[in-house]
Amino acid sequence: MRKSLFLYLFIIAVLMNVFTYKYFTSKENSELKSAPENSNSVNTKSLSDSITHLNDKLYDANIFSLENNDRAQNYLIETSNVNNIQGFAEKVKQALLSYNDSPDGNKYTDQVKMGDQKFIINTMKLLNHRWIIANYSNGQLWGEVLLKYFIDDKGGVSFEVMNSYLYPASLN
């Protein structure tokens, strides 16, 4: 009788394992079927839309840049014999930033040195073949400047301040 009892308990344990396995696999399959079949394509579509939206915003932000202005590039190629626009832009930026080393600060910020702090140009953007916009600071005050730049026959770069604005200290 004892052998029969163990046999029955063994058969019941095996059947419980089989039914448990069957239950959980059918539950997993039903969850997969109930989930949207195109969940990956929905995510891909929303990501694609987000990327397109960001690209549009980037394009709008770079409307006024030498790199995206074909007319300004053609003008530089024809009049200044520029072959590499990126190299040219870097040359102009370095020429302007070289004035930051002056003990009185960058003279193209249109600001005089205040105390020990000199005004230097932090960042700039070439808008086209003639204009640059830049921001400057002395660590406490911040401002922006609009510059004209010129290329001479020898390839030298000169600058002229068109307008400058120094923000009041209370706005910083």
Question: How are the elements arranged and paired?
Answer:
Layout: H1 2-34, H2 39-61, H3 70-80, H4 85-97, E1 120-126, E2 131-137, E3 142-151, E4 157-166
Describe the structure.
The chain is α+β, with helices and mostly antiparallel strands. It is built from four helices and four strands, in the order ααααββββ. It has helices spanning 2-34, 39-61, 70-80, 85-97; strands at 120-126, 131-137, 142-151, 157-166. The protein has a four-stranded antiparallel beta sheet with strand order 1-2-3-4. β1 and β2 (131-137) form a beta hairpin. It is elongated, with a radius of gyration of 34 Å. The mean pLDDT is 86.
The coarse overall form would be elongated
Q: What is the count of β-strands?
A: 4
Q: What about the largest sheet?
A: 4 strands, antiparallel
Q: Rg, please?
A: 34 Å
Can you tell me the residue ranges where pLDDT is under 50 for at least 5 consecutive residues?
none
Task: Give a nutshell description of this structure.
The chain is of the alpha+beta class and 172 residues long. The chain has four helices and four strands, in the order H-H-H-H-E-E-E-E. 47% of the residues lie in helices and 20% in strands.
Name the features.
4-stranded antiparallel sheet, 4 helices, 172 residues, alpha+beta, single chain, elongated
